[in-house]
Structures are given as C-alpha cells and as structure tokens.
Amino acid sequence: MTGFETLRLDGVTRRFGGADALAGLDLEIRRGEFIALLGPSGCGKSTALNCLAGLLPLSGGSIWRDGTRLDTLPPERRGFGMVFQNYALFPHMSVRKNVSFGLRMRGLPRAEIRRRTDDAIRLVHLEEHAGKLPGQLSGGQQQRVAIARAVVVEPSLVLMDEPLSNLDAKLRLEMRTEIRRLHQNLGLTTVYVTHDQEEALSMADRLVVLRAGRVQQIGSPEEVHTRPANRHVADFLGFRNLLPGALLADGEININDLGVRTKGTPVGPISDGDAIVAAIRPEDVLVRSGGVEVTVEVAAYHGREIAAEARTADGLHLHLRTSQRLAPGDKVSVVLPPDRLLVFPA
Amino acid sequence: MSGLASESVSASTPAVRHRLAERGIDPQLFLLVPATVFVVALFIYPFCYGIAVSLQPAQGGALAAYRAFFTDAYQRDTITTTLAIALPAALFNVFAAVPIAYRMRGRFRGKRLLTTVLVVPITLGTVLTAEGLLNFLGPTGWFNRILLSTHLVDQPVTLTHNYWGVCLSLVITGFPFAFLLVLSYLSGIDPTLERAAATLGAGWAQRFFRITLPLLAPGLATTFCLTFVLAFSVFPSAILVGDPTGGTRVISIAAYEAAYVRYDYAAASATAIVMGAVELVVISIVLGLRSLFYTGSTAGGKG
C-alpha cells in the first residue's frame, strides 16, 4: 500500500464564477483516520472531495502527502479510491471487470489481478453476482461494487461522496456498519462526505463541519455533538430549538417570550447585555413540573417517543421529545436544563 | 337514489379505455393512423410498384432487367463506384466527428457558436457546395493559385470533376449530420464514468478507449448507417463536381439515364431496387456488428 503518515490540506480554495465554493480549508488527515465532511447542500463538502481527488483544479492552496505536493497531479496519479454518489459503475462491464479495472490500469500480473478481484468481491458478498452487468443489480449491490472497485487497489485514501444517499433507510443502516467495518479491517484512511449528521457522528473519528465553503468546526463526534462551536453547527446538529434572547447579569439569560429567566452554558465570547441565541435539542427539553407552562400544538408518533411542538403563553415555539403520550391541546410544564442549554452569541 | 344506482353500475364495469388497456391496446395509438396511411401511400406503394415495373421489361422474362444490369459491366460497375465514394466518405464523417464532438461534450464558453459554425453546411445544399468547390478548388481557384505561387506544385492539383470533388462535397454536407448525432450520443454518456476511471488510474487514452468508445460504439454504428445512406444516394454532386461519365458514374446516375435518357422504366426500377438492396446489405452488416457491443443504458447507476 502506498501509505502516508499525514495528508495535509493547506488553505484549499475553490471558486466558481467569483464565489467561494470552498474557502481556505486547512486539514491534516492522519493514516487510518475516518474523516467526515458534514454540512448542508452547497456547503462545499463535495467540492472539497473533488479537489482532493483531483477532479477539480484548486483556485488556491495546496495538498501535500507527507513531503509530496499532490494538487498538481492529475487524478489518475494520486492513487486515491473514490466512491461516487451515483456509483458511476461502468455499465458495459461485468461486476468482475468493474472491480478489476483499477488493477488492470496498473498493469499488474494476471494472476494477482484475479486473486485480488476475487478477494474484493468476496469482501462485499457479491460472489454470485460477479458475472452480472451493473444494470442487473439492485441499488445496494451496485453500491457494494463501487466500494469494492475503490478499495481493491489498496488506495492510500478512500473518498466517498454521499455513498448512501440513494439507498433505502434499512440498507443505509446496514451499509454504515459495513463501510465502517471495511475501514477498520482493511486499515483504510477514509474521507466521507455526507449531509446526514447521524451518519457522520456514527461513522467518523473526526468531523469537519462546513458551511458556505468555510470550516465551522473540526472535532471528534462527541465534541461536535455536545459542544457545537457556533449556532450554525448547533442548528445543523439537531439543536432544533434556537431561541433568541439576551444575556443578563450573573449568567442568567432572558429568552424572548419564554416567560421566565433561566440559566445556560455559554459557548464563545459573550458579555452581559449581549443578544444571544440559546440552543437546546428537543430530547433535552424535560417535561417536568415546576417549569414553563406550554400548550402542545402538534404531536407526532416516533415509536417510543412523541415529538411535539408546543407554545408558551407568550407565543414561543418549542420542539420537544418525550416518552409521555402527549396530544394536541395538552398543557404541560417543561424545564430547560442549564447544562444542555447552550448560549451562543447572536 | 338513481344517482347512486348509476354510480354502482359504472363502478362495476370499468371504462372502455381501461378494458382496452388490459388487452394491451392504447386507444391513443389510433392517432398514428394518418401517419401510417401516409407512409403506405408514399413509400410502400411506390416501392412495390417499382418492384412490379422492374419485373415487367419490354423484352425477355421477368428478371430480364436485372440480368441486363448485372451482365453489362458499364451498369454493374456503378455499384462499386458508388460504394468506393460512399463508404470512405461516411467513415470519414463519423470518425472525424468523434474527436471534435469528444472535445465539445462538456459545457464551455462559445459552444453554441462553434456548433452553429460546424452545422451550417447542412443549410447550404449540394448545389451551393458544388459551386463553392468549383470556385475554390478548381484549376484556377485560390487553393491551386496559392499552391502554384508558393511553388509547392508545378501544375494545378485536380480536385474537381473527379472522385475527390464528390468525396469533398459529401464530407462537407454529411459531416454536420454525423457531428450532431455523435455529439448527442456522447452527451448521453454519464461524465462521472470517466471521472471514476481517472480515480482508478486510467489516463485519457484508457478512459477514451475503454469507457467512452465502447459506450459510444452503437451510436457510431447508427450514425454511420445514416451518413452512408445519404452518401450512397449521391446524385447532384456526382454530376456537378464529379466525372459523371467516368470515375463518378454512380448508381443513381445509371438509374436516371435508364429512366429519362433511354425511357426504359423497367431498367430504371431494377437499378433503383439494386441500389436499395446494396444499402440494405451494408446496413445489415453494420447493425449486425452493432449488436456485438453493449447497447444498454449509458448511465453509471442510480442518478
């Protein structure tokens, strides 16, 4: 394997028609890491991946593999594997030919090509389908061919561009574990692009959260999940309640229309009197006596939980999740635990 | 009460179109009737009429006109003459269109203008093209004057009133067709396939010959058939920029002479039927080869 110790992205920038699709991405990828690029559509995550693969020229910055500069090399000389969102399987080649394509391009001996192709096909459990054309396979099988084709060449880096977004929910969960298992067993280094925060949190060692072409936060899943760096990251990571207000003295905050003062955990530089946004996940809102009176407006069944939208007497909307069976019109009392209520500068 | 009753009746007996649909009949297909009548009246009937006329010569048996065509070398050789012009011209048009269309398959500034420039010769018509060829490439045209004045040649190069004049004319008028067809076939090939091949280590030549060309081949076969048929029925340019009594006496000239010089309608019809048969043979061979290629979807998976 053409391994590396670190792959460094140095201010990688890509402009489309004057607008920055990706602005100054700095990132160091260590061997064996699973990195997820996470963000809403149009945030630059696919641009970053294509720049890394060599499919898009950079407008600025550089990419280094240990001491070698990579961004001037064409894609075929970077030795990365890539899994495309639509799989991009060669429709006129059988599964076996698709998987062996990269090995044949490297001009390896025939016996080695056959052995490694067989291994890769076995790895993704497609032995019975090896002779079929991609058009004869289901979406999940096509996706596994795409993964086998990318990893068979033992690339120093595997790039995945939303590989699960075309699959149904059940298959998506299975493939998540499958990809993570391949990553560990083969000792791959993976950069994975997704807009699905659950996917990113459950699969990656490190997350890079992007918004409008700029890095918002880089950190472990736990860091990003519990301590989003700013309100945009919080918004993207499931803090559905973003409540505007102001910071008072003594760490107390006043959330508009909530009716009572409360306390929260400040993130970032805020001083007394500043406008703030208080963020809390629906599942962290506790339905408990002694809090704020709210009226349930919408209640949606989610198995063990009810996801409800409620409103305070002054008209503030709150999303909450609870195991209590709430129905529209119910009046309940909710508490916002200070350690879960993050306070960001507005 | 009566409203309810009629509703229940119509609910138990499905609408006529649903009953037809169950038998695989779409009533909207009847809209094709006028077009079918048109084709029958203007193509199939004259075709059958032509066969009938060709089998009723003034003298001899039913096949006398065909026997006369194939025994007379002057008539028979028009087949090879025409093939010698039409096959290279069609091949050249298809293969010249591939690299140009390949470079132009993406989106770039000025694509529309460039496409227009490449396609304009379609609108010229053969007569105008022939006139231009005679003026530019004739013995006193600017092409030969430049060659002579730069002393590259001692005598004018003969590019008109011979084989090359007809070939050039067919290339000028046939290339835009081939180019447009190849461009549309190429645009139908998912561009991520080549990107995937690149990430797997394939250089541009491998990407083209292993991914794009195999997916394009069926389209090239179809394009070749269409340009070949256009070239095979060459008539005006064979006369205007060719040598209609010698090197470019093509089969359509033979048919024209039989019909309007000798007034032998049986011979003319027989010649036309032979012409169609030769085209059919070439097209069958090409389409037979086409079926050896992958002819399915050119997308890389779920889009």
Report on this model:
The complex is a heterodimer of chains A (346) and B (303). Chain A has 346 residues and is an alpha+beta fold. Chain A folds into two domains: 6-232, Rossmann fold; 239-345, Nucleic acid-binding proteins (OB fold (Dihydrolipoamide Acetyltransferase, E2P)). Chain A contains eight helices and 20 strands. Chain A has a six-stranded mixed β-sheet with strand order 6-7-8-3-9-10, with helices on both faces. A six-stranded mixed β-sheet of chain A has the order 13-12-11-15-20-14. The longest helix of chain A is centred in the middle third of the chain and has 17 residues, at 169-185. The model of chain A has no long low-confidence stretch (mean pLDDT 92). With 303 residues, chain B is mainly alpha-helical. In chain B, helix 12 (204-232) packs antiparallel against helix 15. Chain B has a single domain (75-290), classed as MetI-like fold, CATH 1.10.3720. Chain B starts with a helix and ends in a 13-residue tail after the last helix. The chains are: A alpha+beta (346), B mainly alpha (303). The A-B interface holds A 53-55, 74-82, 84, 86-92, 101-102, 105-106, 133-135, 139, 142, 146, 149-150, 153, 159, 166 and B 190, 192-193, 195-203, 206, 210-211, 214-215, 293-294, 296-303.
